[in-house]
Amino acid sequence: MAGMRKFLTVRPGDDGTLIGDGFDGYEGVLFGGLVLAHAVAAATFEMPAGRRLHSLHGYFLRPVMAGEPIVSRVKPVRDGRSFAIRHVRLEQVGKPAFTMTCSFSADTDGGYEYNLPSRSAVAPPTDFTIEQGPGPWEAAVVGPTSVRADGTRESTHRQWFRIPLDLPDDAHLHAALLAFTTDWTGIGGRPLRLDGDTTGMVSLDHAAWFHRPARADEWLHFDVHSWSTRVAEDCSGARSATSAARSSPRSLRRCCSQLLDRGVERGRAESASPTTRRSRLDRSSSSGSGHSRIRFRRG
User: Within 10 Å of residue 276's Cβ, how many Cβ atoms?
Assistant: First the structure.
C-alpha cells in the first residue's frame, strides 16, 4: 500500500502544476486504472472541505509510462453552492496523456432515494477463494453468469474486492483508490472470448459515477456487463454495490468504458485457435482494461 500512497501523492510544481512520481515496482506502460486514480488525486489536492467526488469523464490520449514523473494541470471550471467542477490534464515529457472533467458534491441526508435491486443473487466473498489482486487489493472472483439462449450473458465479469488494511477516513483517498477499480474489468469487454486474457485491450474513454460514499477497505461487489461490441470496439458498463450481507444492497458506483481491442485488430486467426490463445494466458499478472496488463512486483 505504501507504493500506491506514494503514487497518489502530488506536490506543487511550477506554473500552478502538480508533480507526481512514477510508480515504483511497476514496469512499462501504466494500467489505465492507475492513471484514473492519479488524476483523481490531483483533482482533490485543493478541493474544498465537504465536497466528495461525484462523477468523472476521461479520455486516454497517450500511454503513461511508469518510470516518468506525471505533471498535472488542474483548472477550476466552477465552484457553485451544490457542485464543483474541475478539469484535469496529465502530461508526460511535455505531451498530454490523459484529460478528465470531474464533479464534486456535498452529501445530503434524507430526500428522494431510489435504487434498482441486484439482477442476480451473489454469494458473499467468504464463499469464494480469496486471491491476491493488483497491488494492495485482494479479490474473490465470482465469474460471469451463464450463457443465455440467445448467446448473451447478463454479466461478463463479477468479483468482490477490497484492500485488507485499515485505511484512514479520507474520502479523497478512497475516491482515488475506487477510481482505480472502475477500470479493473477483467475480460468483461470481450463477451465472446471470456477464456482469453487482456492483451491488446486499450481504454479509449471512461466515465464513472460515485452515487454514495464507499470505502476501499470494505468488500465491494463489481458486476460488469458488455452492452455492445462491433469489430474491435466494445462499450461496457459496471455496477459496484455494498456487501451482499445487506438486506438490500445499494448501488455505490457505476462506470462506462469504451475499449479498443487491438488483439482483434491484429487479426482473427488467433481467436480461431484455442491452443494459441491459452498459451498467452497469464492471469497472475493480468487484470483490467487499461493500456496494458498490470505488472506489479512485490516490494
Answer: 11
66 Rama class: left (phi>0) / alpha (psi -120 to 50) / beta: alpha
Model-level pTM? 0.80
Handedness of CA 246, 215, 184, 296 (dihedral sign): negative
242 grid coordinates: 455494498
Burial class (CB in 10 A: 0-12, 13-18, 19+), 263: buried
Per-residue b or e along 198-208, where b marks 16 or more CB atoms closer than 10 Å to that residue's CB: bbbbbbeebbb
Three cell numbers written together for 206:
471512461
Q: For residues 288 and 198, is the Cβ–Cβ distance under 8 A?
A: yes
Q: Do the strands 130-132 and 233-241 form a parallel or antiparallel pair, or are they unpaired? A: unpaired
Q: How far apart are CA 34 and CA 279, in angstroms?
A: 27
Distance CA 182, CA 214 (A): 13
- ∠ at Cα 74 (68, 75), nearest 5°? 150
CB 92 within 8 A of CB 69: yes
In whole angstroms, give the CA distance from residue 99 to residue 41: 14
Q: What is the pLDDT of residues 2-53, one digit of tens each?
A: 999 999 999 999 899 999 999 988 889 999 999 999 999 999 999 877 899 9
